[in-house]
């Protein structure tokens, strides 16, 4: 089993220590470092090369959103960022997703939820908490106005089937659920997803869902 290396970035020592204890007790997960703010997180990622960063949004020196952008922005960056928040409909969380975060987690999550979130984000093969994430993306997509033309143009690079798969990803469906919906093999869906991410220059399924809402490919409920 490959060990998932985790960095915890939060300005509250009790949060860092608590999450460290919880995660180190989980098989296949190791906390390799802690960061006290965004600048420290960026430096520690370069130094320690973690697989996943648990990133608080509101921190001194450099906030979690800009830290996420700096960490995930460089070409070839593979580290995944999991945003920590105190409530699920937080405008800053949506901005963090747009900045490159792969998902988010409430700070009052249980040990099992925390470990599962880290594993899901590290794997990059499913949205984290699909129902909540989908609701958050939909809620703040309403605030962004009309789809931006450059993004809409990029959808044209996809085949009809790839566009259909992208729409289903944004609706929170897993690969298995998409395969059942389209009556194809799950491996075929995985191939489509990989091609979608490459063609659109996206990091993972969370970024694909954000893209689908922002281009208007998927409309928030009621709109």
Radius of gyration: 17 Å
- Supply the number of structural domains: 2
How many helix segments? 11
Portion in strands: 5-15%
The main sheet comes to: 5 strands, parallel
According to DSSP, the number of beta strands is 5
Helix content: 40-55%
Would you tell me the structural class of the helices and strands?
alpha/beta
The arrangement of helices and strands along the chain is EHEHEHEHEHHHHHHH
Instruction: Give the low-confidence spans.
Output: none
Average pLDDT confidence is 83
The fourth-level CATH homologous superfamily of the largest domain is: Response regulator
Question: Quick one: overall form?
Answer: globular
Distance between the termini: 45 Å
Strand order of the largest sheet: 2-1-3-4-5
**CATH T-level fold name of the largest domain:** Rossmann fold
Organism: Streptomyces kasugaensis
Modified residues (4-aspartylphosphate): 56
Keywords: DNA-binding, Phosphoprotein, Transcription, Transcription regulation
GO molecular function: DNA binding
Keywords:
2 domains, alpha/beta, globular, 5 strands, 5-stranded parallel β-sheet, Arc Repressor Mutant, subunit A, 223 residues, Rossmann fold
Written overview of the protein:
With 223 residues, this protein is an alpha/beta fold. It contains eleven helices and five strands. It has a five-stranded parallel sheet, sandwiched between helices. The longest helix is centred in the C-terminal third of the chain and has 15 residues, at 186-200. The model has no long low-confidence stretch (mean pLDDT 83).
């Amino acid at each position: 089993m490959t060990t998932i290396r985790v960095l915890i970035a939060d300005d509250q020592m009790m949060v860092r220590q608590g999450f460290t204890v919880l995660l180190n007790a989980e098989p296949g997960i190791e906390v390799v470092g802690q960061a006290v703010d965004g600048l420290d997180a960026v430096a520690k990622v370069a130094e320690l090369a973690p697989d996943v960063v648990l990133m608080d949004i509101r921190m001194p020196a450099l906030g979690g959103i800009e830290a996420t952008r700096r960490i995930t922005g460089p070409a070839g960056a593979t580290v995944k960022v999991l945003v920590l928040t105190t409530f699920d409909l937080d405008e800053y969380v949506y901005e963090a997703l747009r900045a490159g975060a792969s998902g988010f987690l409430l700070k009052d999550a249980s040990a099992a939820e925390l470990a599962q979130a880290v594993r899901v984000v590290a794997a990059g093969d499913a949205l984290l908490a699909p129902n909540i994430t989908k609701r958050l993306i939909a809620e703040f997509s309403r605030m962004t106005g009309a789809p931006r033309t450059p993004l809409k143009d990029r959808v044209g690079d996809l085949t009809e089937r790839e566009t259909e798969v992208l729409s289903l990803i944004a609706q929170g469906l897993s690969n298995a659920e998409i395969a059942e919906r389209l009556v194809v093999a799950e491996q075929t869906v995985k191939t489509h997803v990989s091609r979608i991410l490459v063609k659109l220059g996206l990091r993972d399924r969370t970024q694909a869902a954000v893209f689908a809402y922002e281009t208007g490919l998927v409309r928030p409920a009621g709109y």
